[in-house]
Amino acid sequence: MSTKPPAWPQGYQRVVLSEVDSTNAEALRQASTLTDPTWFLGLRQTAGRGRRGRAWSDPEGNFSATLAIRLTDPPAQLALRSFVAALALHEALVGLTGLDSAFALKWPNDVLLNGGKLSGILLEGAGQGVLAIGIGVNLRQHPETQPETHPDGGAFLPVSLREETGVSVSPEDFLNHLAPAFVHWEERLVTYGFEPIRAAFLSRVARLGEPLIARTQHDQIHGVFKTIDDAGALLLDTKAGTVAVPAADIFFP
Question: Which of 21, 37, 205, 206 has the fewest Cβ atoms within 10 Å of its own Cβ atom?
């Protein structure tokens, strides 16, 4: 286990805010002025948000940050950064705790700790070619919110790093581990394409080969988690054959 972070990545900037409404919102506001990739870390976030407009509760001491990075990739390629961010989170968390088997990735980009939801990721386009990659991690305590549930079961109770592992880390220290890990996986994506990212994600993903429920905005699909394809879509074996699901909330019955 290594608790000393690697060197801060060259060319990346950081802005630490004592209070902010949302780190993603701040990144969007600053997008037109950014020349270097920049991390915005909010020590207190008052209006955090998650996927599909959900509120993201952010108790004091937890991690809320956004990487604003200027990219020229098409939208489908930009979306692959959610997998890059998930792998970076996994690397940072294992490096801090040494507990490799305790962490798993939940497609498309959540991090689970002992089966509970520890972290979430939100990607938003900021315009001017800037992508905002928002990351929240329950470092100190989990929010007092209802878990994500499905009528057929599969609740994901929120958990925190300190409560589950006994490891305490400040948001600033966590960023010092996360930022180099992100660059490591981003460089792999840029150099070798999505395949090594896909393979690494599948080796860490939860419930591969098991039944799950994928709930989209308009439908829900029951099937067995077969793999993810070269665009990052979930592939399910269903009674009607293999179905590709580009985006959904998933639940484990």
Answer: 21
| Residues 74, 140 within the same domain | yes
Task: Give the whole-angstrom CA distance, residue 95 versus residue 177.
Answer: 8
> What tens digit of pLDDT does each residue of 95-127 get?
999 999 999 999 998 999 999 999 999 999 877
The β-bridge partners of 16 are 41
Range of the domain at 162: 13-204
| Span 56-92, pLDDT tens digits | 556 789 999 999 999 989 988 999 999 999 999 999 9
pTM: 0.92
Please tell me the distance from the alpha carbon of residue 190 to that of residue 129, in angstroms, as a whole number: 17
DSSP one-letter string for 56-125: ----TTSEEEEEEEE----HHHHHTHHHHHHHHHHHHHHHHH--GGGEEEETTTEEEETTEEEEEEEEEE
SS3 category, 153: coil
Number of structural domains the chain divides into: 2
